[in-house]
Amino acid sequence: MNRGRTTSARSRATVRGKRPRKRVLIVGEGRVTEFEYFEGLRRHCAETATEVIKGDGGDALAVVRRAEKHATPRRAWDEVWCVFDGEPKDHLPEAIERAEKLRFHVAISTPCFEVWLRLHHRDSPGSGACSNRIAALDRFVPGYAEGGKHIAPDSARHGRRVRGWTWFEERWAPRIADAVRRAEGLERSSRRSGQAPPTTVHRVVERMRNGWPDNPSPGGGGEATGSRR
């Protein structure tokens, strides 16, 4: 990535006959799962010019700080999204507050990103601690728990390009619409009961899939903490 880029987002190149593609930066918490998912989605979608930054662990606040580092200069990006888990112990309130101050957006899954992955296969987000969600995902992604939480096949993980990233096209892309529908339904029911939704990852996914007709409020998704703020 060219950290010294000074070009305004408004002046980026356009595709002939189409409006300029919005530029979005996504910074995740995990080193493996989130990166593989959003990199696969980036290659699947053509509506946005997206860059995905691989996480290096740490808590929610570390994700926001990493995004702040990579989003310089800020005007080079139309939107910046921070994707992290909704564990209160991970400096969650401070992370959300910092993201809002920076006009970043957040997508949170409680207790972990596996909630969003499960919704590609089941109506329910599952239950229990994060370790339980990881183990349960083995049913849909064989070897997930013991294989380092990879969703990409070995050839993609070891740097050998899978033609067209077909693993994402075959395993995940056909299920995204169902995952979004389920997440939106859970969000509506959660809000009716005064609770936070189990995940808001569908918000950034839908932005990538459908383009960017308008701008969501910065910090959007910051209520996925188990209870409303």
Describe the protein's architecture and organization.
With 229 residues, the protein is α/β, with parallel strands linked by helices. It has one domain: Rossmann fold. It is 36% helix and 11% strand. The protein contains 9 helices and 4 strands, in the order βαβαβαβαααααα. The protein has helices spanning 33-44, 60-70, 92-102, 114-118, 130-136, 154-157, 166-171, 176-192, 201-210; strands at residues 22-28, 48-53, 79-85, 105-109. It has a 4-stranded parallel β-sheet with strand order 2-1-3-4, with helices on both faces. α8 crosses α9. The termini are far apart. The model is unreliable at 1-17 and 224-229 (pLDDT under 50).
Itemize the secondary structure elements and their pairings.
Blueprint: E1 22-28, H1 33-44, E2 48-53, H2 60-70, E3 79-85, H3 92-102, E4 105-109, H4 114-118, H5 130-136, H6 154-157, H7 166-171, H8 176-192, H9 201-210
Helix pairs in contact: 2-3, 8-9
What is the count of structural domains?
A: 1
Q: Give the strand content.
A: 5-15%
Ends distance: 36 Å
Question: What does the radius of gyration come to?
Answer: 17 Å
Q: Main β-sheet, in a few words?
A: 4 strands, parallel
List SSEs in N-to-C order. EHEHEHEHHHHHH
Contiguous uncertain segments of 5+ residues: 1-17, 224-229
CATH class: Alpha Beta
Averaged pLDDT, please? 83
What proportion of the residues is helical, as a percent range? 25-40%
